[in-house]
Amino acid sequence: MAPVLNNVVVIVVLVVYAMLPGEITLNPVRMTDTHLLVLGLGTALGVAVQAAVLFPALRKTGFRFKWRFGWDSRLSEFGGLAFWVLLYVGLGLASMTVLTNVATSAKGTLVAFNYQWLIAQVPYGVLGVSLLTALMPKMSRAAANNDNDSIVRDLLFGNRMSAILLMPFSALMTVSGLAIGLAAFAWGNSGVEGGTRIGLALALSAFGLVPYAITLLQLRVFYAMKDARTPTLIQALIVAVRIGLLYLFLAVSTPGDAAQLAVGVSLAMSLSFVFGAIVGQIWLRVRLGRLRTGFTIWTVCLTVVASSLAFAVAKGVNMLVQNAIGFGDPVVSAWVEVILVTLIGLPLAFGLLAAFRVPEMKPAIAKINRLVRRR
Questions:
Q1: How is residue 254 annotated by DSSP?
Q2: Of 51, 82, 80, residue with least CA distance to 65
Q3: pLDDT in tens, 181-219
Q4: Three-state DSSP class for 159?
Q5: What CA–CA distance (Å, rounded) separates 115 from 208?
Q6: How far apart, in whole angstroms, are the C-alpha atoms of residue 1 and residue 226?
Q7: Is residue 375 one of the residues assigned to a domain?
Q8: What separation in angstroms does the CA of 215 have from each of 6, 81, 116, 275?
Q9: 229 is in which domain, residue-wise?
Q10: Mean pLDDT, all residues of the chain
Q11: Cα separation of 264 and 281, whole Å?
């Protein structure tokens, strides 16, 4: 409910922004004070709406707000955790500062990276965050009871579900990233060149989506155990690898070539999360014992095979349609590809996972069977 209301607020704010007199621009330097005020107040209002909508839900659970004075021992515990969380945020800020400095070496690189990153975040924001929201309370209860076996089961389930839910979308962005970039951005000021740059960066870095989700899940396991120090240390390692890769890609890319550098920056981000997922799994193995990592790797392999087969078929159908009709406009052709490959590839990928008898697909299969029987 909260995200829906927040989206409504965002739409209203954007409509108001568009109706204001003056130039419509994404450059904050060229925006008028009124435009900036509307965006600032709209952002604050969206956060306030998300917070307000939670109060009725809290009351239904029996929660009642009451002022308490004096020192609570939990505040001391929070203070110890807060230091490491702030340091974690600071490391992220340092990473983004270096990334921005590297990306601004070629005009258009930072814009391409930002847009491809936003596109890649969409499936994670819908599916990955929902998975984390469902698992975090269970892992926290298990951690409070020192039940490491339950934590491991939830971690294993979360890793496997992350691969099952997100790998098909990663494959979609890999095989049709260029078309997605053209379809979404070639109409505006970016033009075909800008859309191509964004799409290329998306296609070559989309493999990082699943490691990104797994890394964030691993860090939540440490937080469930009230350990904010280890996630920060892992973040420090990820940031160190990312910064090294950023300067490496800057050194090997052609000076002034925004397309090359956009791909390099995007690859640095994705590869750092691959590294983070490996480090997090090893660290949790030391902390919790056997994690059945082989089971997770097997599931990832199954999702890769299913997604590869599904999107190979989808791309083949797209080529047949494109050759038969022959769209002259590259943007129109891109839209046709995005629609065809998505409508064919995603259902086929999940269908193949069901055919491979992946255990996590059983509830969905059972529900579909029940619906079919009713008819």
A1: P
A2: 51
A3: 988 887 766 677 888 889 999 999 999 999 999 999 999
A4: helix
A5: 15
A6: 29
A7: no
A8: 27, 19, 20, 9
A9: 75-367
A10: 86
A11: 26
10 Å Cβ neighbour count for 328? Answer: 7
Task: Give me the pLDDT at residue 185, please.
Answer: 83
Give the per-residue pLDDT at 367.
Answer: 59
Residue pair 292/154 in contact (Cβ under 8 Å)? The answer is no
Q: How many whole angstroms separate alpha carbon 16 and alpha carbon 39?
A: 9
Indicate the number of domains in the chain.
2
Q: pLDDT tens for residues 139-178?
A: 889 988 888 889 999 999 999 999 999 999 999 999 999 9
Write phi, then psi, for 192 (nearest 5 degrees). -60, -40
- Distant-in-sequence, close-in-space partners of 168: CB < 8 Å, separation ≥ 6: 303, 306, 307, 310, 311, 345, 346, 349, 350
- 349 and 266 inside one domain: yes
H helix intervals, 104-147? 109-123, 129-144
Claim to verify: residue 107 and residue 59 sit in the same structural domain = no
Element (H, E) at 282: helix 258-288
Question: Where do the DSSP E strands lie in 61-169?
Answer: none
Residues 148 and 33 in one domain: no
**Residue 346: which pLDDT band, with cuts at 50, 70 and 90?**
very high
**Does 94 lie in the same domain as 52?**
no
